Every structure is written in structure tokens, then in C-alpha cells.
């Protein structure tokens, strides 16, 4: 019975990746105008997810060694971005910025972990699993807007952005199955993956996204971007607070 509950929950979480469709309803011209605000929002939500959720969770298991794994995650995403530049771009113009692929990898890690967490909660107690699913959904909705914005900013067409974002979201299904069948075996790896994902989020926000925001020189737009960044932090803070109630 627990398996069906887990699958229903992780499939629901995966489908939340399509909230980006709401952005498309604004129209391409309007979406282009607010894209930098969405990028600022994504930057804030990534940093908040890393420092307010992922790192504290990993530190609870790894202790101070968590910081070494976070650093390894930052370096790993740096190397991965260099590889994407070399492999996909070469001497020609790169039509899709590497941050798009990095976002998919980092979000895939995160979604897999969400699936494991949901599985562990349902195995423990049905009500705990339901509350955990709701909390993760509240966390995912604003993040999915940010993820979709990052893919558009990276150069993905809207339909491809939705498709690849959904593929990344399906990692939660694999996480749920792994959690159900192999929780005792994978449990020791979960905090390591959490810390690596945190490093990836920090790298993407600080190395790829925030520098894009600094290209804006109009005072009003700079204020709007700053408010959007803080909004991303605040919404993740609310979601994390609800998750740990």
C-alpha cells in the first residue's frame, strides 16, 4: 500500500514542473521583459534552498565534513560547466548556455532526494508522508518557476524547456522507488547527495545567474531585481519553515 501512496505523491510532484506553462500565458514579449526578474527570483531561491534547507539537512548527518562536500559540489559543477562549454560549444557560438544543463543536473539531484524523503515519510507513517508531500509541493512551485526561467534564459525554446524540466522532475519518481526498495542501502548516500546539490545551487546562483543581473544599469530595474531575489529567498524560507514544523 505504501508503494502506491509513494508513487502517487512523486508523480504529483513531477507534474508540478509544468507550472511554467503559466509563464507562457503571459505572452513571449511580456515574458522576455520579466525574464530577468525570474532569474533574480531563481537566484534567491537557489541560495535559500542551499543555505536554509540542504546544508543544514546534510550537516545533521555529516557534521563539519558537510562543508567539504559542498565545496566539492561547487568544484564539480565548475568542471561540468567547462566540459559543457568544450563539448557543446567548441569554437562555434553556443546557442544554449551551459547554465541550462547545470540547472537540469542540479534540479535532478534535488528531485531525486525529494522522492527519497517522501518514501521515507510514508514508510514511517501515512499522515507524515502526506504532510511531507504537501510541504515539498509548496517548496517546488516557486522553484519550478525559477527553473523554467533559467532554461529560457539559457536559450531553450519554451516547449523544450518544459519537456526537459519535466524529465528532470521525474527524478523524484526514481528517488521514491529507491527510497522504498533500497532505503537502508541508499540512506548513507543521501546526505552526501544533499550537500553536492547545495554546492551546485550555490555555483549556479553566484557564477551564472547573479552576474547576469549586474548587467542591468537602470535604477528601477535594479531595485525590481533586488526585490525579486529577496522574494525568492523569502518564499523558500516559508516553505522550509513549514516543512520542518
Question: What does this entry look like structurally?
Answer:
The structure is a single chain. The chain is an all-alpha fold and 245 residues long. The chain has one domain. 87% of the residues lie in helices and 0% in strands. The chain is built from 10 helices and no strands. It has helices at residues 2-15, 20-24, 28-62, 65-89, 98-124, 126-154, 158-169, 171-186, 190-213, 219-243. Helix 1 (2-15) runs parallel beside helix 6, helix 5 packs parallel to helix 7 (158-169) and helix 5 packs across helix 8. It is globular and about 55 Å long. The model has no long low-confidence stretch (mean pLDDT 80).
Radius of gyration: 18 Å
| Beta-strand fraction estimate | under 5%
Let me know the largest β-sheet. Answer: none
Order of helices and strands: HHHHHHHHHH
Instruction: Give the overall average pLDDT.
Output: 80
User: How many structural units, i.e. domains?
Assistant: 1
Describe how the helices and strands are arranged.
Blueprint: H1 2-15, H2 20-24, H3 28-62, H4 65-89, H5 98-124, H6 126-154, H7 158-169, H8 171-186, H9 190-213, H10 219-243
Helix pairs in contact: 1-5, 1-6, 1-8, 3-4, 3-6, 3-9, 3-10, 4-5, 4-9, 5-6, 5-7, 5-8, 5-9, 6-7, 6-10
Describe this structure in a few short sentences.
Helix content is 87%, strand content 0%. It has 245 residues and is an all-alpha fold. The chain has one domain.
Summary tags:
245 residues; 10 helices; 0% strand; globular
Amino acid at each position: 500500500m505504501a508503494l502506491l501512496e509513494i508513487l502517487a505523491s512523486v508523480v504529483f510532484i513531477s507534474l508540478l514542473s509544468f507550472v511554467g506553462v503559466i509563464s507562457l500565458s503571459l505572452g513571449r514579449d511580456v515574458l522576455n521583459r520579466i525574464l530577468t526578474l525570474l532569474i533574480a527570483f531563481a537566484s534567491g531561491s537557489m541560495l535559500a534552498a542551499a543555505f536554509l534547507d540542504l546544508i543544514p539537512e546534510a550537516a545533521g548527518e555529516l557534521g563539519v565534513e558537510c562543508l567539504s562536500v559542498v565545496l566539492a559540489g561547487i568544484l564539480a559543477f565548475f568542471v561540468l560547466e567547462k566540459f559543457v562549454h568544450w563539448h557543446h560549444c567548441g569554437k562555434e557560438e553556443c546557442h544554449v548556455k551551459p547554465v541550462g544543463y547545470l540547472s537540469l543536473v542540479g534540479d535532478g539531484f534535488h528531485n531525486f532526494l525529494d522522492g527519497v524523503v517522501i518514501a521515507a515519510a510514508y514508510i514511517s507513517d501515512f499522515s507524515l508522508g502526506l504532510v511531507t508531500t504537501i510541504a515539498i509541493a509548496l517548496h517546488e512551485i516557486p522553484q519550478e518557476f525559477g527553473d523554467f526561467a533559467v532554461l529560457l534564459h539559457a536559450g531553450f525554446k519554451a516547449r523544450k524547456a518544459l519537456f526537459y524540466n519535466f524529465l528532470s522532475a521525474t527524478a523524484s519518481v526514481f528517488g521514491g522507488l529507491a527510497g522504498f526498495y533500497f532505503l537502508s542501502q541508499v540512506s548513507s548516500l543521501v546526505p552526501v547527495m544533499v550537500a553536492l546539490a547545495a554546492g551546485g545551487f550555490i555555483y549556479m546562483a553566484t557564477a551564472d545567474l547573479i552576474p547576469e543581473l549586474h548587467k542591468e544599469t537602470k535604477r528601477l530595474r535594479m531595485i525590481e531585481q533586488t526585490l525579486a531575489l529577496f522574494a525568492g529567498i523569502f518564499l523558500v524560507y516559508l516553505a522550509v519553515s513549514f516543512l520542518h514544523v
